[in-house]
């Protein structure tokens, strides 16, 4: 395992498929405070690679909400949609090294396969040694082999047998779009990201990303996966579960709720303080060790109500 580089560089990487909600605030708050605690930089990357999922106005809403909550990022905002050249170059290196192969299978054809660790179908390897006769290439998959290990600062030691638990996964989709897994490792490495602090819903992606870092000769950052906010039905707060957009008018109280969620035990009176006072308290009291060591926590209905 590569020793994380100093200085500390963290990042927040929202997907512009809707406005920020309480769950995204938790991830932003944890990664920002951890970066500040290390006198590090904190970068902002808009993950708008998946253009069909892009919602008009979502990026502007995200930037406005981050600003209203008092986040300040270092350097210019990076947009994945402007970086396809870098992903294509990385893909080409994998292709020339024989690490990726074209796959003709449709989603339906692999739907009955055994499941991978994250519950998605594990690719059975149909096209691994060449396309079946008469079939046309669609997506490109990377050969998932070996072991991915990392010591998560919150979730503890993680170990994934890539072939058995993940299977060969897509790095370039049938529509030509590079997969999140490839883009994220290229972006993090190029920006010098030393520490990835993000939601535990991405824990199962980390083994895939470590494999790609290894194949591309990129450094492995340190990881800390925060518990994700779930609604009372146990679903992660997301645009799909209609989590409510953050309301800038109640920023201090919402931020205090995020700190409480992250196990920081803010005094209740802080909810009536100004945003600057809440950040001052948070900066002085932030301890990653206090973050609950679980993958998800249900939050009260104030944060998971449907959009009006
Ligand atoms: N774009 C991803 C999301 O919004 C986060 C990716 C990451 O932090 O690696 O869930």
Keywords:
308 residues, alpha/beta, Rossmann fold, Glutamyl-tRNA Synthetase, domain 3, 3-stranded parallel beta sheet, 3-stranded antiparallel beta sheet, 10 helices, 12 strands, 32% helix, elongated, binds glutamic acid
Q: Could you tell me how far the N terminus lies from the C terminus, measured between alpha carbons in angstroms?
A: 47 Å
> In oligomeric terms, what are we looking at?
single chain
Strand order of the largest sheet: 1-2-3
Q: Can you write the helix and strand succession as a string?
A: EHEHEHEHEEEHEHEHEEHHEH
Mean pLDDT: 92
Shape: elongated
In CATH, the homologous superfamily of the largest domain goes by the name HUPs
Walk me through this protein's architecture.
With 308 residues, this protein is of the alpha/beta class. The protein has 2 domains: 9-83 and 190-306, HUPs (Rossmann fold), CATH 3.40.50; 101-182, Glutamyl-tRNA Synthetase, Domain 3 (Glutamyl-tRNA Synthetase, domain 3, Alpha-Beta Complex). The chain is 32% helix and 17% strand. The chain has 10 helices and 12 strands. It has helices at residues 22-37, 58-68, 84-96, 107-110, 162-166, 180-190, 203-216, 251-261, 275-285, 301-304; strands spanning 9-12, 41-46, 78-79, 100-103, 139-142, 147-152, 156-161, 169-172, 195-199, 222-226, 228-230, 296-298. It has a 3-stranded parallel sheet with strand order 1-2-3, with helices on one face. A 3-stranded antiparallel sheet has the order 4-5-8. Helix 7 (203-216) links the parallel strand 9 and strand 10 (222-226). Helix 3 crosses helix 6, helix 6 (180-190) packs across helix 7 (203-216) and helix 8 (251-261) runs parallel beside helix 9 (275-285). The longest helix is centred in the N-terminal third of the chain and has 16 residues, at 22-37. The relative contact order is 0.18. Mean pLDDT is 92; it is low at 303-308. The chain binds glutamic acid (GLU). The site of glutamic acid has 7 residues, from loops. Glutamic acid binds at residues 13-15, 47, 184, 198, 202.
């Amino acid at each position: 395992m590569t020793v994380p580089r100093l200085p500390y560089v963290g990042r927040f990487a929202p997907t512009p498929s809707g406005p920020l909600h309480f769950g995204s605030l938790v991830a932003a708050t944890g990664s920002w405070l951890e970066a500040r605690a290390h006198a590090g930089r904190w970068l902002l990357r808009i993950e708008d690679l998946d253009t069909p999922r892009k919602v008009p106005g979502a990026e502007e809403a995200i930037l406005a909400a981050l600003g209203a909550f008092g986040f300040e990022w270092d350097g210019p905002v990076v947009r994945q949609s402007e970086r396809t050249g870098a992903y294509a170059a990385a893909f080409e290196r994998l292709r020339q090294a024989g690490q990726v192969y074209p796959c003709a299978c449709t989603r339906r054809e692999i739907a009955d396969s055994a499941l991978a660790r994250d519950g998605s179908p594990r690719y059975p390897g149909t096209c691994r040694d060449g396309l079946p006769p008469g079939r046309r290439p669609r997506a490109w998959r990377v050969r998932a082999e070996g072991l991915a290990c990392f010591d998560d600062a919150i979730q503890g030691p993680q170990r994934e047998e890539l072939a058995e638990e993940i299977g060969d996964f897509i790095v370039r989709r049938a529509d030509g779009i590079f997969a999140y897994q490839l883009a994220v490792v290229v972006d993090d490495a190029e920006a010098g990201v030393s520490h990835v602090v993000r939601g535990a819903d991405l824990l199962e992606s980390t083994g895939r990303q470590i494999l790609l870092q290894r194949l591309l000769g990129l450094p492995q950052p340190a990881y800390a996966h925060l518990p994700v906010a779930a609604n009372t039905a146990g679903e992660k707060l997301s645009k799909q579960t209609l989590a409510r957009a953050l309301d800038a008018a109640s920023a201090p109280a919402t931020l205090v709720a995020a700190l409480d969620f992250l196990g920081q035990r803010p005094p209740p009176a802080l909810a009536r303080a100004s945003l600057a006072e809440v950040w001052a308290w948070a900066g002085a009291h932030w301890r990653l060790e206090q973050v609950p060591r679980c993958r998800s926590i249900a939050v009260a209905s104030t944060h998971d109500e449907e959009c009006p």
